[in-house]
């Protein structure tokens, strides 16, 4: 079973290393929970993929307890709201799901129109979650870091490389000294090692968190560079090395990924960074546009002449 390593043991302590914070909260609270509370805890840890989609009423019915017991249980393990508990449970489940597990819950056999509406509705929910949970002051602090007169290395791997490339590419349009690196490319270690001590590294990490990004986070920490981690969950293992963090939470568990919240966050960061450049921004972008023109990089109607009829 997928979550065997996280099962609670009725008698004795759980010794499984690297427990998720939610599971750790439940196991740490077991001794002081009521008997019905312990039933809830055991059910959640043994059946997280079912519990994550349940309302308080559905969870109460599954465990044959009252809704009030569910509310007291959530409060007893340290959550102010059921939605906060459910978000942590969602992050736990998302981190552990394999591709085959995701296929089981994706309902890809649904009619195309229904699947389209569901996809759009879920992304709207994810954006609302981003809007409600991300702190503007924290985002401004990260922009302060990105605005330093220092080299910035932007790193991603697998799915997150798409977002890392997007962040790095757009940043090159508003400031200089940006380098986009692949976590899977071992020469990334070289670039980080020879980078100036005041460098800023941005690691973009999305579930299911490639080990190579964890190793690079550890390297950046050892080198003493400022590390910004942009991720989609508080469960991201790269966060332990971060000096600054931005977490673009999603409400739903994606089949293959949900780039909408993170791309929206990146847009804000780059727009805010651009707003701080002043006249330097115009000079920087004029230089780029001149190079595009001279090297015929982008399609331009002014350079095109109508084809001569034969």
Automatic annotation (TrEMBL):
One of its GO terms (biological process) is carbohydrate derivative metabolic process. Residues 20-96 form the HTH rpiR-type domain. GO terms for molecular function: carbohydrate derivative binding; DNA binding; DNA-binding transcription factor activity. Pfam families: HTH_6, SIS. PROSITE patterns: HTH_RPIR (PS51071). InterPro entries: Homeodomain-like_sf, HTH_RpiR, RpiR-like, SIS_dom, SIS_dom_sf, WH-like_DNA-bd_sf. This is RpiR family transcriptional regulator. It comes from Desulfosarcina widdelii.
């Amino acid at each position: 079973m997928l979550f065997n390593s996280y099962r609670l043991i009725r008698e004795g302590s759980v010794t499984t290393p690297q427990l998720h914070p939610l599971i750790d909260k439940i196991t740490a609270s077991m001794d002081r929970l009521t008997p019905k509370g312990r039933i809830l805890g055991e059910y959640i840890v043994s059946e997280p993929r079912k519990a994550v989609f349940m309302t308080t009423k559905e969870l109460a019915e599954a465990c044959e307890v009252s809704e009030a017991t569910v509310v007291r249980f959530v409060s007893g393990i340290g959550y102010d709201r059921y939605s906060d508990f459910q978000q942590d449970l969602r992050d736990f489940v998302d981190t552990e799901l394999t591709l085959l597990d995701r296929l089981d819950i994706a309902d890809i056999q649904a009619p195309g129109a229904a699947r389209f509406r569901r996809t759009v509705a879920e992304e709207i929910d994810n954006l609302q979650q981003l809007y409600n949970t991300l702190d503007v002051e924290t985002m401004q602090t990260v922009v302060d870091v990105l605005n330093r007169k220092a080299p910035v290395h932007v790193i991603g791997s697998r799915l997150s490389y798409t977002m890392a490339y997007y962040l790095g590419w757009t940043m090159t349009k508003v400031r200089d000294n940006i380098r986009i690196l692949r976590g899977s490319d071992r020469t990334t270690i070289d670039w980080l090692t020879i980078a100036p001590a005041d460098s800023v590294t941005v690691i973009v990490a999305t579930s299911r968190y490639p080990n190579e990004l964890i190793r690079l986070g550890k390297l950046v920490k050892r080198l003493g560079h400022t590390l910004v981690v942009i991720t989609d969950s508080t469960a991201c293992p790269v966060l332990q090395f971060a000096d600054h963090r931005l977490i673009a939470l999603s409400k739903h568990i994606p089949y293959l990924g949900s780039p909408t919240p993170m791309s929206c966050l990146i847009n804000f960061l780059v727009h805010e960074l651009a707003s701080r450049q002043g006249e330097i921004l115009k000079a920087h972008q004029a230089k780029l546009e001149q190079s595009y023109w001279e090297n015929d990089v982008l399609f331009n109607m002014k350079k095109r002449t109508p084809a001569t009829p034969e």
